[in-house]
């Protein structure tokens, strides 16, 4: 009897222990973390939305991530925006590449329309893919000018139009370049075309040309420059007379008040902004160009920068063009300097090519 009671007691303890273990195991199973939810779908873009511009930004508007997680890199945000859907990419590419309506006009040295000029062009398309991929497609084509000198490009889509060259027997471009400009696909019209100028190849003159650098003392003393001989000497004798005045000495990097002048004793100067200077004007000349630079001015500099002038020389017997830069201090290595390039027609003609 006692034995049976002991066995019953032992059996009860074992059963109780098993029950505790079972309850503990079930509790752990109930507290196990739920499997992660599927990532939320990206919001759909409305037709015409630009993925880089119209997608809502995280709170803060400057790439900030969720609280406590620090900033998110801007390029990471841009990449996510670009990946939102093919429809957004299609809209973006259609916006970049629009129907081309490009108009040009070719004229001669006297602004007369030139017919039968062959114009080589390129139309370029841009296509955006997965960030940062951008690919281009270039379509070369030719056009001929009509009797009115006009040509046009239509029937294509693109991001830009580049004029590569234009040719006609007996003529040459006014200025030889690698290409003649890149333009928007709809940046011109028939009434407002890109104008290209050509010159007859037999219109050339024997010009006197040169590029010179003259070291000067910038204390206000005058220097005369002979453009025919390409020489300079102190004094007021020359086709051009220049002076520069500044304090002395000056330290490298120091700002100071300085001034300069350029004169044509027996002629005149006419300032010009156009890069092409093929024919000197008959009138509009002045005798002097003056320049002053105050130490306290914003963007202070120690040189005039390239100044472009037509010049009438020797009482109207000659015409020319010059590009001149007057230095109050040449990078701390020279006290002062005049740098000059020029082309003079000694025949008296105003033609400068």
Compressed to H and E, one letter per element, the order equals HHHEEEEEEEEEEEEEEEEEEEE
Mean pLDDT: 81
Helix content: 10-25%
Q: Main sheet, how many strands, which sense, barrel?
A: 5 strands, antiparallel
Count, helices: 3
Write structural notes for this entry.
The protein is of the alpha+beta class and 353 residues long. Among the domains are: 98-200, Sandwich (Immunoglobulin-like); 208-345, no CATH class. Helix content is 14%, strand content 34%. The strands form five sheets. Strands 11-20-19-18-16 form a five-stranded antiparallel sheet, with no helix packed on it. Strands 13-12-14-15-17 form a five-stranded antiparallel sheet, with no helix packed on it. It has a four-stranded mixed sheet with strand order 5-2-10-8, with no helix packed on it. A hairpin with a 5-residue loop joins β3 (118-128) and β4 (134-144). The protein is flat and about 95 Å long. The N and C termini lie far apart (136 Å).
Offer a concise description of the structure.
With 353 residues, this protein is α+β, with helices and mostly antiparallel strands.
Features of the shown structure:
Immunoglobulin-like, 353 residues, alpha+beta, 3 helices, 5-stranded antiparallel beta sheet, 34% strand, 14% helix
List the helices and strands and how they pair.
Blueprint lengths: L1 H29 L43 H9 L3 H11 L1 E2 L2 E6 L10 E11 L5 E11 L5 E4 L3 E2 L1 E8 L3 E3 L8 E2 L10 E7 L7 E8 L7 E4 L4 E4 L5 E6 L12 E6 L4 E4 L16 E6 L13 E7 L4 E10 L9 E9 L8
Parallel strand pairs: 2-10
Antiparallel strand pairs: 1-6, 2-5, 3-4, 3-7, 7-9, 8-10, 11-20, 12-13, 12-14, 14-15, 15-17, 16-18, 18-19, 19-20
């Amino acid at each position: 009897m006692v034995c049976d009671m002991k066995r019953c007691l032992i059996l009860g303890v074992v059963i109780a222990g098993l029950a505790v273990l079972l309850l503990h195991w079930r509790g752990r199973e109930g507290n196990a973390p739920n499997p992660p939810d599927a990532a939320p779908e990206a919001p759909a873009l409305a037709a015409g939305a630009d993925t880089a511009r119209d997608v809502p930004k995280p709170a803060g508007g400057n790439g900030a991530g969720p609280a406590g997680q620090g900033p998110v890199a801007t390029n990471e945000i841009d990449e996510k925006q670009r990946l939102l859907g093919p429809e957004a990419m299609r809209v973006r590419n259609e916006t970049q590449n629009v129907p081309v309506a490009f108009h040009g006009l070719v004229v001669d040295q006297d602004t007369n329309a030139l017919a039968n000029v062959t114009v080589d062009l390129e139309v370029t398309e841009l296509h955006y893919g997965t960030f940062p991929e951008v690919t281009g497609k270039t379509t070369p084509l030719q056009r001929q000018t009509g009797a009115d000198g006009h040509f046009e490009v239509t029937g294509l889509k693109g991001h830009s139009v580049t004029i590569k060259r234009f040719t006609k027997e007996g003529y040459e471009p006014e200025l030889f370049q690698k290409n003649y400009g890149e333009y928007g696909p709809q940046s011109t019209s028939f009434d407002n075309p890109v104008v290209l100028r050509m010159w007859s190849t037999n219109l050339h003159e024997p010009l006197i040309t040169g590029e010179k650098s003259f070291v000067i003392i910038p204390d206000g003393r005058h220097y005369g420059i002979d453009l025919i001989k390409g020489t300079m000497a102190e004094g007021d004798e020359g086709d051009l007379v220049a002076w520069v005045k500044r304090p002395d000495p000056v330290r490298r990097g120091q700002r100071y008040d300085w001034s300069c002048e350029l004169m044509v004793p027996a002629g005149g100067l006419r300032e010009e902004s156009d890069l092409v200077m093929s024919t000197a004007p008959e009138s509009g000349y002045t005798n002097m160009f003056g320049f002053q630079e105050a130490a306290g001015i914003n963007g202070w500099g120690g040189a005039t920068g390239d100044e472009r002038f037509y010049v009438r020389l020797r009482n109207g017997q000659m015409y020319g063009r010059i590009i001149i830069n007057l230095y109050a201090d040449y990078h701390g290595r020279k006290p002062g300097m005049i740098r000059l390039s020029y082309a003079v027609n000694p025949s008296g003609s105003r033609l400068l090519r």
